[in-house]
């Protein structure tokens, strides 16, 4: 079939297998061009198919030479529907990893469930023995609790006061004011239940109890802080409460793993175009302004550059365990530099529909958004008949 992008708001309902494979190859090529990392040998990535999780898996396999298991929630192609981008990404990753002589396995299903945890533990035991790095990179709008069966929904809302700020429709380029009403206490609790640390804690507890977490293992989950302009809707809003909970979980897990010389961290990453971040009001316009400034300064990074730096410098390098006053790794250090933020703030106050393409990198944002789904990628002929049915080599 001819596969073209079909968008609904910030969602693209189609994905291009060859375009996704080219995007994965670009990330692998980047890593192959960097010095090798003396790092983990066996890695479990939960939320491994897109964004930061996929980049973490690529760095593990291609910079550190590790065997990997990826857990993710993606769909195969069916009838006239293409598979999801994460499916195609994972198929391309697995093929490349196996060609490079690494073991790699996929488990597709709900990471929040007990079944998927049990299946993953069995797979680790059978194929890898134990894992020495666990990356937790799940971003989801919903979670069904594995014990109570209750389903929670996360929302992105401020707490206390109504929030109004600029936002952009990144398809039309229209800059407008978004107003978001504050969350109820119930919505705050539900968001924490989805995006907080409970599921990460459950994974580590169960891996440890099953004896498949190696002595001295490291575990990392990802967080975000960002600039003043997004604080009310992000860091001081519902999702920020969930991140507070995730960060508190890291401190607890660090204590739990310390007797065996293990480590748990939250890494605060840079704002980047991913399927999750495009769903947050205000953030796409902020990212467009940020990209403009960071590209001009030669400091721009994507997911793969961020994750390579995280592994090479912070997790396994000379700055090992360099953390802020709250125990967090700060790989958002370049984004948060004073001079970068001052320039972004200046642009922010001037941004309008008329000047958005000139003052910000909205064109770059849009292109990266489509590239997440394998579109707008050099070297791909989008007019050619393409088979949407792609198998994942080692799907369990
Ligand atoms: P993403 O949407 O690209 O990836 C999410 C991953 O989670 C995918 O692999 C998806 O398949 C998986 N997933 C979702 N629900 C699942 C489920 N029920 N079971 C199994 N897998 C499931 O997201 P991302 O932007 O890479 O976010 C990953 C983490 O990084 C999040 O904690 C996010 O808050 C954090 N982060 C993101 C940014 C950013 O700007 N994108 C910045 C800093 C931190």
UniProtKB/TrEMBL annotation:
Active-site residues, Swiss-Prot/TrEMBL: 234 (proton donor)
Biological process per Gene Ontology, one example term: fatty acid biosynthetic process
Gene that this polypeptide is encoded by: fabV
Molecular function as annotated in GO: enoyl-[acyl-carrier-protein] reductase (NADH) activity; NAD binding; trans-2-enoyl-CoA reductase (NADH) activity
Function: Involved in the fatty acid synthesis (FAS II). Catalyzes the reduction of a carbon-carbon double bond in an enoyl moiety that is covalently linked to a coenzyme A (CoA).
Native source organism of the sequence: Paenibacillus phyllosphaerae
Full protein name: Trans-2-enoyl-CoA reductase [NADH]
Protein's pathway: Lipid metabolism; fatty acid biosynthesis
Positions of the Enoyl reductase FAD binding domain: 323-385
């Amino acid at each position: 079939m001819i596969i073209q992008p079909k968008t609904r708001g910030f969602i693209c309902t189609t994905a291009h297998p060859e375009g996704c494979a080219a995007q994965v190859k670009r990330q692998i090529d980047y890593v192959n061009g960097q010095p090798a990392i003396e790092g983990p040998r066996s890695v479990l990535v939960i939320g491994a198919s897109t964004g930061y999780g996929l980049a973490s898996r690529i760095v593990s396999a291609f910079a550190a030479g590790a065997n990997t298991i990826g857990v993710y929630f993606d769909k195969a192609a069916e009838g006239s529907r293409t598979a999801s981008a994460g499916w195609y990404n994972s198929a391309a990753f697995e093929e490349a990893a196996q060609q490079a002589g690494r073991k790699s396995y996929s488990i597709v299903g709900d990471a929040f469930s007990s079944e998927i945890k049990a299946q993953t533990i069995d797979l680790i035991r059978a194929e890898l023995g134990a894992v020495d790095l666990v990356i937790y990179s799940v971003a989801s709008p919903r979670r069904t609790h594995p014990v109570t069966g209750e389903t929670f929904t996360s929302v992105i809302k401020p707490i206390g006061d109504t929030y109004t700020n600029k936002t952009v429709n990144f398809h039309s380029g229209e800059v407008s004011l978004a107003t978001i009403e504050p969350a109820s206490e119930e919505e705050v609790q539900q968001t924490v239940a989805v995006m907080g640390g409970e599921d990460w804690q459950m994974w580590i507890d169960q891996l440890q109890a099953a004896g498949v977490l190696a002595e001295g293992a490291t575990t990392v989950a990802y967080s975000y802080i960002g600039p003043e302009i997004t604080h009310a809707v992000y860091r001081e809003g519902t999702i920020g409460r969930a991140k507070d909970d995730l960060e508190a979980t890291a401190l607890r897990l660090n204590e739990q793993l310390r007797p065996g010389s293990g480590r748990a961290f939250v890494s605060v990453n840079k704002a980047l175009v991913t399927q999750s971040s495009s769903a947050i009001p205000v953030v796409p316009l902020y990212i467009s302004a940020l990209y403009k400034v960071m590209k001009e300064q030669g400091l721009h990074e994507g997911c793969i550059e961020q994750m390579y730096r995280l592994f090479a410098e912070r997790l396994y390098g000379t700055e090992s365990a360099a953390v802020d006053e709250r125990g967090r790794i700060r790989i958002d250090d370049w984004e948060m530099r004073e001079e970068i933020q001052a320039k972004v703030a200046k642009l922010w106050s001037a941004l309008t529909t008329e000047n958005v393409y000139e003052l910000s990198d909205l064109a770059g944002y849009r292109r990266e958004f489509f590239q997440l789904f394998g579109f707008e990628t050099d070297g791909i002929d989008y007019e050619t008949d393409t088979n949407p049915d792609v198998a994942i080599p080692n799907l369990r």
